[in-house]
Design goal:
Blueprint lengths: L2 E6 L5 H15 L3 E6 L6 H6 L3 H11 L5 H6 L2 E7 L7 H8 L2 H5 L7 E8 L6 H15 L2 E2 L19 E3 L9 H32 L1
Parallel strand pairs: 1-2, 1-3, 3-4, 4-5, 4-6
Helix pairs in contact: 1-8
Bound molecules: flavin mononucleotide.
Length: about 210
């Protein structure tokens, strides 16, 4: 079974909804999925000063385990999800990526599939910039980056060629069916590419024997 790790940060649930749709797509493709939520890194007094933050984080943490180094090693594909933070990755997810230095040093992430999805508040608030900003760490980690292109009818209605997206309008909207369909396609596509990479490696190993 292809193993897909979906690791995301979400504070208000939009990125969480995309993550669940990516998981559904990967499972439809026959993959085993681990869904993990990166934990808070802001100081407790900052979290306490924002109404609802601690409660929302607590509820999501009950639903999803924290990501570990072992999860990344286990996976054949790693899909990152983040709300935008000033046009770039949330520090909570970046902290997880930065914890993968040991695996990177050992070359253990080389050749796994990688992909990314994102949520912003406003229409031109940085979805594509955020997705592309995560292409850089994915390249450094040695992941084979899986974009979406326009390779599914869903792509002509929502999303971006770089990854699934959502515009939450100050957190008043959750992803609609068209945006969830893009995320579902992302899960299917990542699982399909990861499986092809595994098959290719095992064919090469057989040929070398
Ligand atoms: C510190 C901070 C910076 C943000 N920067 C942006 C931004 O640059 N552009 C934007 O459209 N939304 C920005 N947002 C809003 C979130 O990215 C947006 O509400 C997102 O949909 C939340 O996703 P979630 O429901 O998964 O937490 C920012 C939010 C915070 C707290």
């Amino acid at each position: 079974m292809t193993k897909v790790l979906i690791v995301f940060y979400s504070r208000n649930g939009s990125t969480e909804a995309l993550a669940n749709a990516v998981a559904e797509g990967a499972r439809r493709q026959g993959a085993e999925v681990r869904l993990r939520r990166a934990r808070e890194v802001a100081p407790p007094e900052v979290i306490a000063s924002v109404p609802g933050w601690a409660e929302a984080a607590g509820a999501m943490n009950d639903r999803f385990e924290a990501p570990t180094e072992a999860d990344a090693e286990w996976a054949d594909a790693i899909v990152f999800g983040t709300p935008t933070r000033f046009g770039s990755i949330a520090s909570e997810l970046k902290a997880y990526i930065d914890s993968l230095g040991g695996l990177w040093f050992q070359g253990k992430l080389n050749g796994k599939a990688g992909s990314v999805f994102c949520s912003t508040s406003s229409k031109h608030g940085g979805n594509e910039a955020t997705l592309l900003s995560i292409y850089a760490p994915m390249a450094h980690l040695g992941l084979i980056i899986v974009p979406l292109g326009y390779a599914d009818p869903a792509m002509f209605k929502a999303g971006t060629p770089y990854g699934a997206t959502h515009v939450s309008a100050l957190d008043t909207l959750k992803p609609d069916e068209e945006h969830l369909a893009v995320a579902e396609f992302q899960g299917r596509r990542v699982a399909e590419v990861a499986r092809a990479l595994i098959e290719n490696r095992s064919q090469q190993a057989e040929a070398a024997e």
